[in-house]
Amino acid sequence: MLANLITAQDSVLLVSDACYNSRQFKQFSSALFLLKEDAEARDISLSHNESALDYRQFLELTLNAKNTITW
Fold first, then answer.
1. Which residue, 45, 60, 62, 65, is the most exposed by fewest CB within 10 angstroms?
2. Is the whole-model pTM more than 0.70?
3. How far is CA 4 from CA 1, 26, 32, 70, in A?
4. DSSP secondary structure letters along 53-66
5. Any idea what DSSP says for residue 15?
């Protein structure tokens, strides 16, 4: 189902407990981000190809996006 919703051109931001599933989402998007505060709260170490965004960067990503989907 996710393959139909997420393309390689999309940015994906994982928040809250979704941060635990970063490897699962990596196959769907090359621009995968975790919310920094949520990853730190869950003691999740980022791999070399993962990026964390703070709340300011999260806001910028959202404002610059053509469309957003939350689920």
1. 45
2. yes
3. 6, 15, 17, 15
4. E-HHHHHHHHHH-S
5. -
